[in-house]
Amino acid sequence: MKGMSLVDALGRPLQSLRISLTDRCNLRCQYCMPEEEYTWLPRKSFLNFDEIEILARIFASRGVNKIRLTGGEPLLRPDISRLITRLRAIPGIVDLALTTNGVLLAEQANDLAKAGLLRLTVSLDTLKPERFFQLTRRDRHADLLRGIETAESASFS
Ligand code: SF4
After folding, report:
1. pTM above 0.90, yes or no
2. CA distance readout (Å), 4 to 63, 130, 157
3. Scanning 36, 73, 81, 103, which has its CA 20 to 30 A from the CA of 140?
């Protein structure tokens, strides 16, 4: 049975759900993680895939139809494609997207697309490798560009 719809303070339906999969990141952008080390959440406190799916199903039964996966850097979460397949199978979910810094995309883009991810948002602050290094303090610009190229040839909608 469909439950009561979620609405905001003005009575508008809440249809989008953002799920953060990790607080970790493989970059250290000056404007986001200015320190080198942080007190990270213990991994055992992360929602596991069963728990994420249960929550997503509850939200979907209340009118949510779009899910976006984020972090930190969500591609650091092992087996993320398995989660994507499970979220795509939820009745009512018509959009499934992921926000990434792109560093691990070259290895993962095809699996993500096959698993049913529909859309990707890749953040690219600069086309200049030295500027990228200044901003993110990691030498991963080439990986990011390779990731975008792979994603372009994968079958995202
Ligand atoms: S890639 Fe995103 S999450 Fe990672 S440090 Fe930069 S802004 Fe923050």
Report:
1. yes
2. 8, 51, 31
3. 81
